[in-house]
Amino acid sequence: MRPQRGRLLGVGCIEAGYGLSAAKERGWEIDAVEWSPILAEHARKHLSIPARVSAGWDLSVCEGNQYDVVYSLSIEHMLRPREILQHEVIARPS
């Protein structure tokens, strides 16, 4: 829906990876973090989405990256979503 494209981080949403694939087809640069090695491999192999495996909500694998959008279908499972989403990796102002 956003007219300009940018960088999108998918967090724990490879089970719905086709949404990430659709965003990629529309010109978004996609990065993904998944805690399931099986789902991450599926994303890499079948959807051409670079997916890294990380335990829980550890986003340190994205260290130094900035994103315009964070996409997650499992945010309701976080104990402290605000703290996690404000992690400096994601929320660092440009």
In percent terms, what proportion of residues is strand?
Answer: 15-25%
CATH architecture: 3-Layer(aba) Sandwich
Q: What level of helicity do the residues show?
A: 25-40%
Cα separation of the termini: 22 Å
Task: Describe the protein.
- The radius of gyration is 12 Å and the shape is globular.
- Helices cover 30% and strands 18% of the residues.
- A four-stranded parallel beta sheet has the order 3-2-1-4.
- Helix 2 links the parallel strand 2 and strand 3.
- The C terminus is likely disordered.
- It is of the alpha/beta class and 94 residues long.
- The chain has a single domain, classed as 3-Layer(aba) Sandwich (Rossmann fold), CATH 3.40.50.
What are the key terms here?
94 residues, Rossmann fold, alpha/beta, disordered C terminus, 4 strands
